[in-house]
Design a protein that fits this description.
The protein has 296 residues and is α+β, with helices and mostly antiparallel strands. Helices cover 25% and strands 37% of the residues. The protein has 6 helices and 19 strands. The N terminus is likely disordered.
Length: 296
C-alpha cells in the first residue's frame, strides 16, 4: 500500500513538472517589438505601393498637338500641312477624359478617350469627316490605328507610343517643343553679324502668329509648325508697312532671313534663342526683351 502511494506521488510530480516546463517554453517566445512591427508594416506598405503618376500630371503630359511619325511600323514621311497628327485636349468638367482630334492626312476623326494610369478606353465611337483625297497614303492606316488604341507609353516629354490591347505599338507620336519661343524678342545678329537696329518681334506659337517692328516698318505674319522635323518652324505670308527708312538694308536682310527659317533652338540661356535655315546654320540670334525694352 505504501509502495502504491509512493508511485502515485511520483507520477503527480512528473505531470506537474511537465506542465510547468510547457508554460515556461511558451513564455519564452520572443516578443514582437515596436520596431519590428514598424519594419514589417513599412515593408508591406512599400511592397503594395505603386509608383503611379497623378492623373493631372498624366493629362498635362499628354495634352497638345502630336505628329504621327510612325503607324504600324511604317514611318510617316508626308511634308507640310497634310502630315497626320493627333491633338489631345482635356475635356471640360470631365476628369480624366481627353478630347481627341485625329488627322489622317485627309479626314479629321473626333472622339473621346478615358485615361486611367497608362490605360486608354474610348468613350463612344470616333466620328470622321468624309472628304475624298487623291493622295493620302496613311489615311486608312491611321484611322484603323486610332480605333485600336488601348494604352500609351511616354518615352519623354516629346515622344509617346500608342499601343493596342495586345501590347503592339500602333502609332509613335512626336510633340514639337517650341514653347521656349513664345514672347517678345530683339534680334541681336543676322547671319552671325551683330546689328544695332532695333528689330523687335513677338512670337506666339499657340496662335501661330508673329508681329513686331522690323527696324522701321511694322511686320505681321503666320507661323507654320513643321511636324516633319524636330522644332521645325517657318514664318510665312509676311506683310510689312511701306515707310522709307535710312537703314532699309538691315531690315531687308532680317526679312529675308526670317523667310528662310527652318528650325529653332534654345540658346545658351533661357533668354536666348536661335533660328536656323535648312542647312542648320544660325541665321537669326534672339534675346528676350525685358519689360522696359518692350515698353520702349
Amino acid at each position: 500500500m505504501r509502495i502504491n502511494t509512493f508511485i502515485s506521488a511520483i507520477a503527480i510530480m512528473a505531470l506537474t513538472t511537465g506542465c510547468s516546463i510547457l508554460r515556461n517554453n511558451q513564455s519564452k517566445t520572443p516578443p514582437t517589438t515596436a520596431s519590428s512591427t514598424a519594419t514589417n508594416t513599412t515593408a508591406t506598405t512599400q511592397t503594395s505601393k505603386t509608383e503611379t503618376p497623378a492623373l493631372d500630371d498624366i493629362i498635362d503630359n499628354m495634352k497638345g498637338e502630336w505628329s504621327i511619325v510612325e503607324v504600324n511600323g511604317t514611318k510617316v514621311t508626308v511634308n507640310g500641312e497634310n502630315h497626320p497628327k493627333i491633338t489631345l485636349n482635356p475635356a471640360e468638367s470631365r476628369t480624366g477624359v481627353m478630347e481627341v482630334i485625329g488627322f489622317n492626312g485627309c479626314n479629321y476623326l473626333n472622339g473621346m478617350w478615358n485615361i486611367k494610369e497608362n490605360k486608354i478606353t474610348p468613350s463612344g465611337e470616333f466620328i470622321s469627316t468624309l472628304k475624298a483625297c487623291p493622295d493620302a497614303p496613311y489615311e486608312f492606316a491611321v484611322s484603323k490605328a486610332i480605333n485600336e488604341v488601348a494604352s500609351y507609353k511616354l518615352t519623354d516629354a516629346s515622344n509617346m507610343s500608342l499601343l493596342s490591347s495586345d501590347g503592339r505599338v500602333v502609332m509613335k507620336l512626336h510633340k514639337q517643343n517650341l514653347a521656349f519661343l513664345n514672347g517678345a524678342w530683339k534680334v541681336t545678329a543676322i547671319e552671325g553679324k551683330a546689328i544695332t537696329a532695333k528689330i523687335k518681334i513677338v512670337i506666339d506659337v499657340e496662335e501661330k502668329r508673329v508681329h513686331g517692328n522690323a527696324g522701321c516698318n511694322l511686320i505681321n505674319g503666320e507661323i507654320i509648325v513643321n511636324l516633319d522635323k524636330g522644332n521645325g518652324i517657318e514664318f510665312k505670308n509676311l506683310a510689312t508697312s511701306r515707310m522709307i527708312c535710312p537703314d532699309i538694308a538691315t531690315e531687308q536682310a532680317f526679312l529675308l532671313a526670317l523667310e528662310n527659317v527652318d528650325t529653332a533652338a534654345e540658346g545658351e540661356t533661357p533668354n536666348q534663342a536661335v533660328l536656323k535655315d535648312n542647312d542648320g546654320k544660325t541665321i537669326l540670334s534672339l534675346t528676350r526683351l525685358s519689360p522696359d525694352e518692350i515698353a520702349d
